[in-house]
Amino acid sequence: QIVYLNGSFLPMAESQISTQDRGFLFGDGVYEVIPVYQRNIFRFEEHLQRLKNSLQATSIVNPFSDDEWLEILENLVAKHPWNDQYLYLQVTRGVQMQRDHLPADCLTPTVYAYTNPLKPVAQNIIENGIKVVTLEDIRWLRCDIKAITLLPNVMMKLAAKAQGADDAILVSREGVVSEGTASNTFIVKDGTLITPPNSHSILPGITRMVIESIAEQQNMPIVEKQISLEELNSADEIWLSSSTKEALPVTQLDGKMVGDGKPGKVWLQMHKFFQEHKQ
Ligand code: PDD
C-alpha cells in the first residue's frame, strides 16, 4: 500500500512522522474520509470545502491549492487496484520540538493521506440492519469540525460494544439527538424523513447532504429539525449515514425493535436510489 506523506509517495511500512508532531501529542489536526466509486472521487468539492472549513476553524494552514489536493488524491487512487476505495487524509498543525499548548508561528503542517478498499455494505446488514444504543453525547461544542481528536467517539463506541450493540446514537443532556459516533442520524416518521439541522453539535455529513438531495429529486418528504429522544424511540425507521457505510438501517434501539425489526421500506428505496446515484 502506497501512502502520501509530506510531498512523497512511499510504501506505508516506510512512512514515519516525528514523535513531536502536534497531531500525536495534542490531537491537533483535522481529517477527511472520502469514498471513491468506480475510481471516481465522490463529491470531491464538498469534502474539500469541509476540509477547508475545518482548517480555517482551527487556524491550521491549508498547505495546498484545490488542484494540488486533487492531484495527490487522484494519484493515490491510481496507484491502487481497487475500483471502490475510501481515501483518508489528515493535516496536523506540524512538528514542534518544544511541547507547548500554544502553537509556534510558522509551523509546516504534516500532510498524510492513504487509501483503502471500500467494501460494499454487507448483505447481512442490508437484510437485518444494525443494533444501536443511545448514549449521552460526551463530546465538545465544535462537533462541526472534523478533528482527529476522537477520544470521546472511541469511548462511546467501546461503551456501545460493551452493551452488545454495533454503534451508538448520541443524545445531548437536553434530550436532543445529535448523531452517531461516526455517522449522521435520520429517522422516518409517517413517511417523512427527518434529520437534525447542521449546527456545532454535529458534523455536516456529505452522505447526509447526498441523501437529502436524492430525497428532493425523488419527491420523498424530508425535513431538517431537531429530533427528541421520544421521537427517536417512536420512529418508524432509523438510519445512520457515512462515507464508508452509505445509509445503514437501524433495526434495534436500546434492545427494542425499530418498526417491525426489519430494514424499513423508505430505507430500501433510498438504498436503491443511492446505488444508482453512485454510478
Ligand atoms: N466519519 N458524524 C461523525 C461524527 C463522523 O465521524 C462522520 C464520518 C459523519 C458522516 O460524515 P460523512 O457522510 O461526510 O462521512 C458524521 C468518517 C467516515 C470516519 O471518521 O471514518
From TrEMBL:
The keyword Transferase applies. This is D-alanine aminotransferase. Keywords: Aminotransferase, Transferase. SUPFAM superfamilies: D-aminoacid aminotransferase-like PLP-dependent enzymes. It is an enzyme of class 2 (transferase). It catalyses: D-alanine + 2-oxoglutarate = D-glutamate + pyruvate. Homodimer. Belongs to the class-IV pyridoxal-phosphate-dependent aminotransferase family. Signal peptide: none annotated. The lineage of its organism: Bacteria, Pseudomonadati, Pseudomonadota, Gammaproteobacteria, Thiotrichales. Its EC number is 2.6.1.21.
